[in-house]
Protein 1
Amino acid sequence: MYNMLHEIQDKNSFLQLFAVVLFAALIPFFSALSVFGIRRTATIRREGLLANFPTLTKAIYYHLYLKGDNRSVMTVKASRYFIPIFFILLLNLFMTIVLLDFMGLTDAAISPQVKVFILCGGHCSETADQVPYQTQTLVAAAYAFLGWMVWTFGTIFDRASALQLFPSTFNRLLIRLVIAILVAIVVRHLVDAAPGIVTASGPALAFFIGMFPDRGIKLITSTFEKWFRSSRHSEDFDLELIEGISPGITYRLQEISIESGASLACANPFAIFDASVTPMSEIVDWIAQAQLFLLLKADRFQAMQSVGFRTIFDLLRLIKGTPGVAALKTLCGLDVPQGYDLAAAVESDCNYKRLREVYIAIGNDAV
């Protein structure tokens, strides 16, 4: 009987070890496979673009891009992927051990004699047994990790299907994991201190934060805004204000350091083309919308878009035609001073001139 029980215990230990390895290595394994499959894809796509629109090679943006450090996935050294994937593996291993309670390590780490400040929060000074509270905090962190895993699988497979994975993708995944866990722990303590703030259960809330840590940060921010009455700036220019840019595309643009609409307005379209599967015509449209936003600001921009003038090119066609700049006051309330040549001011902007070259090269009529 003893041998049988010992054999069962050995099998259970082996299965638990197998589960830990599988859980911890799954995302890094698929990430590595995806990286090996994308080395030439960006170059092939760009060659196809230039074959269809050969005059693009004369554009200033194209020559500026060729001088950049990240011309395509093909030029990125494979070693740059190793460090973020390695740290993701380490964090995955730690959180998997916590999640599966491998070999009772979690119970050994959290005992009545041990108080971990990040886990016990405001209860650290109490003399009562802190095991239940600390365990619940650790549960919140583990569920945030699970939520991150679900979101990351979708992201990795999305990038793999598009054959677009940069080192910055894994850097952002790693940062997102750390933020998700920390935000879940903070929200756990916040909810305990003021239970009326959130009605959702701890694990469910932590799982949601793991999938969408930005929402968790907004939860904390909104809570403190209620206390301190802080106000938001009315002219914040989020990328999602641009037609055609979804949250997924926003995340991908942020991977190449395009954090806002302002940075999009002066972005190189070739950099975006290599970092996405978006057609060049749509990328140019995004940038032209962003340039119009910067010129008109939020309310006027939305008013112009509602009547069909979506981009900076549309605006120039309007003010160069009849009735010219006078129409802007009627359409969006913009009063252009008499004698001021708005069209010349727009056309003298270097970002507009470089974008116009690409706009014409892909088959559009000159403005």
Protein 2
Amino acid sequence: MSFSSETKEELSRIGDQERHCMISELSAIISLCGKVTREGTGYSIVLHTENVAVARRFYTLIRQTFDYQPEVSTTRHNYLKKNRYYMISIRNRSMALKVLKTLAQIDNLGRLQEDRSIRDNPVLQRTCCQRAYLRGAFLSAGSITDPEKNYHFEIVCQREDLADQIRDLFDNFGLEAKIVVRKRYYVVYLKEGTMISDTLNIIGAHISLMKFENVRILKDVRNSVNRRVNCEAANINKTVSAARRQIEDIEYIKNTVGLDQLPVNLRDVAWARLEDPEAALKELGAMLQKPLGKSGVNHRLRKLSSIAQNIREYGHM
């Protein structure tokens, strides 16, 4: 089971909600993956989904909120026989009307209310209800990438006004969601690990949140170790390259004018470097008859390089 499916499975089993929160969650589910059809003077509500967690959640919320058992049927895809589709229906016109009115999806005149802002939507006035709405939206049309691979959370909407409303809900919780148009859909998404972690907490996916955070911590530690190793490797390579150039310069002085022509302080450092090509500057300083600090050793090695360059260019020190 994917991380996204595990998260939805967890959310589908959340209980002990207030009725107003269940109404808000139902509103999101019907808006994002339900179909409201007008039949004569009444309405019917049908939910189509291939995710059993979504089907279970919708059925449970309808039964608990309205004390009504909707019809349930299953079909299989004509081409992909393994895919089972669930259809949960409310065909009873009076019950469908009651549900839609309670969810504020139709007005007193029976007109569908599709384009409505958070401010005007009575089912989204409480913070807890806004959390429930986002939970329903994710269950219905959301997905989350396995954090081992990438950080990506999205909710796919068929209407722009729904995408705007979901983005505004994220904004209410201090999360900067963005919208991108993908084919004919409006996709609300988050790509930053901290914001996805906050979202899992907001919608009540606490087990998935712990798993997500564990992966984040391991990835951060792994990346930190890799950066440190790469930095140390780069420093080692830099030190080795510098030592190789120093030895080349000293060997050149030795083979041309001779190290005996150098001042004593430079000659001691030159011999120390030849004797231990891999020694660090601090170690070289400790090897001298008169111990010298790191900066002092570095200064004398630079002087030796300068002398070697003068010999190459002018034939003398």
Protein 3
Amino acid sequence: MQNRLLVVANAAGGVTKEKILFDPRSEAGLAKRVLVSDRPDGFRPASGRVGQKVLALLATGPKYPAEMARSLGIHHQTVYYHVGRLEKAGLITRVRSEQIRGGEAKLYALASDGYAVEFPVRGEPLPSLRSSGRSRALGRFFKEFFQGAEFGGWIAVGSPVQHGAAGTQARDGHYAVQLGFALGQFVNLPSVFPVKLDVDLKAEKLLGSNLVVVGGPRNNAIAEELNPSLPLRFSHGGFWSSIIDREARSYNSELDCIVEKVQNPWDRTKVCVVIAGLTGAATKAGIIGACNFADVLFQRYRSGEYAALVRGADRDGDGKVDSVDVLKQY
């Protein structure tokens, strides 16, 4: 793709610029050059039936007006009229002219890959084209952790050695890797390692920070301390064997997990995101829900606190969790 800038003065008196349109869903990572204006008037020649047909035909390659007339089954004078309007609007361009049987034949092509009207709204910061495929819902939910291009906070995982009142050993910390991939779409590579063990965060007195807590109170000491203030919380009876909602209903599937965002009790200006399950597999389900299905899980979230109860699901029948069902949202 050539590096160029095209500026066209259109017939409506406005200015049309060429910009890059990048499709974040395109696996090939292809971009198109699109003519963009702040008003639709300049694109009016493209709104008619014949104008649209001419543009669609030129999308297949350069054509002469007589050639277009034959392909479209339209009188050549009608095609000449619309070609003139489209050229004046800057939507098509003359490639070359040549003499054929004593007359001048003009070859036309699209001036760009498309056209669009751009509204005067503030765009979304985009550190790189790679990150344009990110989920806006995920970005909104974790917005407090994005300080410019840096990650502002800590990801807390349970210690793999015996700790806490129950002397448990966490075995679900590695699920934070998937979360790291998801959040890495929004920030640069951190200069300081952002993942810490729960015992180290407490020892270093870093609890008054933005925290992402991975793992339930059985494995993560910080989740245990946060539990009483959570809208969806773990029942202490039976060694944290169930989750209780606000209506005192109990959920005890081995794939039940909470995904919550609350004020940090150690510093009310900060937030804590808790992704914690009754089992390691349930915590994995919560991570999958937050990372892979953020547009569904956080579709109604805009700001403030949030709580969801999700249950892991095996959609492809291979015996492993690959999706989630949302059972409850606050």
Protein 4
Amino acid sequence: MRLIKKSLVLLSLTMLVISNSVMAQTTKIFGNIRYNHVSPHVEIKGVNPLNKDETKNRPHFIFSYNNNHQLSKIINKSFNIKKKHHLASFGVFKVVFTYEKNKETRVFFDTKDQPMANIKGVFKEIYQINNDGFKHQLNFYDKNNEPMESRWNISEYRWQQHNDLVIENRFNLKADKQALSPYFPFNTTGIKYDQSGNPHKHFNLNDQLQVVNNEAGIAYYQDQYDKDGIHTKYSYFNQNDKIVNNEWGFAYAINNYDQLGNYIDADRYDIDGNKQQSSRLVKNNLPASDIDKKEITRISLGYLVALQQLSPELMKEVMHTELSKHFISTSSDGTQKIRPTTYKQMIDFAETWNKDGTRFPPNPSNKAVILDSYNNMASVKLISDNWYEYLHLLKINGQWKIKNLIWDYNKQN
């Protein structure tokens, strides 16, 4: 009996060790997912592997695998470290993968384990796979399991192999062919993978599957990766293999990453090697520069000056057309409600409100205090003879504008 008990204890310990070993092998943690602006045909790959201790205070993804070494789940704890791309991101907290014969299904969940639409706007993705393991079709479904279109008006992807390319076509629910994306007019495309399985070149093809220029004069773009699978550079070429500028005026971009391997921004260059203005948030401009502070103050006070001096043109200059301005009014019975003022009303007020010249003192007291500023945003406290006001300003296309405003009467006067 003792021998049996001892054997059972040893068996239990052995099973525990095996179980822990299996668990350790079925979960991996990565700092990033390989960047993909090419196609959903590209396999999901974790890059920048981390150990558990390294995940405590940094973004990461948790990959889980089934007994067949297939992805079964991805938990997204990336904390919005990078601008989300329709093909490179999930836009959800959890992705669950299931497999049947010749089929892979992906469904998406929020932090409360409730189904949600992913960044493409779809609830379920089903891949069809042939006997050789090649993914040849993808279809999108809504929360009722009905076919649907993505935010790019695509309901189905189809792929086939042709020489060393994977040929891709996309269709809506009416079976009409769709471009790669609404902002990039590649139609039938050819994907060329490198030896590491990274999408290396992406071609625009005609009906004969020949490489041709699209309407912007681009025939393909080329991606480069480092030895760890981090996306480092992308370039644009015409059908004669000559580097060209794209629609946004640059020919190639070199990606920048921080010490943790997280994307910061890209340095962009034209065909002559001239560097474009960087998209990064320049740290020495955070908070706002002295020049910006002067402009923030001028725009904030300009709102009052426009009323005082009957200047609708100045009011148009300082106010954003999507202005949100509000005041809490109190009725005779003490009931309070929020009262809005529109952009159009502000323009009208600048024409008429002080027409009799009695709305403000002869020498108005206008004071603007910048409470805080960060990159393209600023918060301002405005004090005048008439009102106390709090303003939110945004810098859009190089111009500061008043976007939000709440106010109350200056009861001290």
